Amino acid sequence: MAHISASVYTSHVPAIGAALDLGKTAEPYWQSVFKGYDFSKQWLKDNPPDVVFLVYNDHATAFSLDIIPTFAIGTAPQFQPADEGWGPRPVPMVQGHPELASHIAQSVIQQDFDLTIVNKMDVDHGLTVPLSLMCGQPKAWPCPVIPFAVNVVQYPVPSGRRCFELGRAIRKAINSFDADLNVQIWGTGGMSHQLQGPRAGLINKEFDNAFLDKLINDPEAAANIPHIDYVREAGSEGIELVMWLIARGAMDDVAKTAPGQARAPLNMRHRFYHVPASNTAVGHLILENPSH
After folding, report:
1. Helices (H), the chain
2. What does each C-alpha distance from 263 to 118, 231, 255 come to in angstroms?
3. Which residues are catalytic?
4. What is the pLDDT of residues 219-240, one digit of tens each?
5. Which of 16, 80, 87, 105 is the most exposed place for a label (fewest CB within 10 A)?
6. Nearest by Cα to 79 from 59, 95, 65
7. What values do phi and psi take at 51, rounded to 5?
């Protein structure tokens, strides 16, 4: 059966994509950011997945204010990089995995989570920047990717607890797929940042690092952080961090078990934090399941 071997967490700052595309990675401002992903690129080569399930948010590209799905899963065979106003990023076409995506949709909906099934959409920097950070600039992405878009742009947005429980449902769905697939689940977005208003440029290192601590060691506490805390402490766009909870909820150590049954802890392979990158804090984690 299919299984989740690891989860990856990363910011998806659009300026990072521009720095890559314009050949600015060696500039002093950007060197520290990209150095934080050197380990990760080698780790991905050493631990290649068959499929990446990538949680991100659309930035009014595939979905306008006319239609705002809370959770949307891409079931198409391919996804074109989106034109976000200055032309599509010069990155490869994203190849999907329709069979696994459709199975996940069926299973998760039967577990009482309402998903929007999307058979055609373009994918923006929220999805392509994480791929670039982890894979570099290849001629083709190393494996199929299932896009999973979460509304964290227009209120009301899903709670952290809802996202965490959805991750558990996604894990169950993947584990029931009848094929020997090694799946990684990636949660993207954040960390603290605000793009508008009197607090534009806000970065809260203390909140960000406390969130990373909770995500690793006490994910239940992370799942219980209320929306207002994200907004107060991490800025209006800090709410993107709820998407990391989907990936965290899919890991083995938080799977629902019989009373008294304990699971082995995860293996933290990499942790990175840097400010600033554009006007955003960059956070990054790699967690492996103990059975990996």
Report:
1. 14-21, 28-35, 38-46, 98-110, 125-135, 160-175, 205-217, 219-223, 227-234, 242-249
2. 35, 33, 9
3. 125, 193
4. 999 999 999 999 999 999 999 9
5. 87
6. 95
7. -150, 145
Type of residue at 254: V
* Per-residue model confidence as pLDDT tens digits over 113-157: 999 999 999 999 999 999 999 999 999 999 999 999 999 999 999
pLDDT at 281 over 90: yes
Distance separating alpha carbons of residues 135 and 144, to the nearest angstrom: 13
State pTM to two decimals.
0.96
Q: What DSSP state is assigned to residue 265?
A: P
How far, in Å, CA of 252 to CA of 201, rounded?
36
Q: Are 9 and 284 in contact (CB under 8 A)?
A: yes
**Domains by residue range for the chain, with CATH:** 3-288 (3.40.830.10)
CA distance 168 to 268: 19
Q: Please, are residues 193 and 23 in contact by the beta-carbon 8 Å criterion?
A: no
